[in-house]
Amino acid sequence: MKKIMIAGVFSAALALVVGGGAAWGVIHYMQADKKSAATPGNNAPQKKEHNENQAFVSLPESIVTLHDAGSEDRYMLVELAMVAEDEKASKEIIADEPLYQSIVVSTLSDMKYEDVRQMKISEIKKMLIASLNAELKNRDIPAPYSDLLVKKVVFQ
Question: What's residue 110's pLDDT?
Answer without folding.
Answer: 87
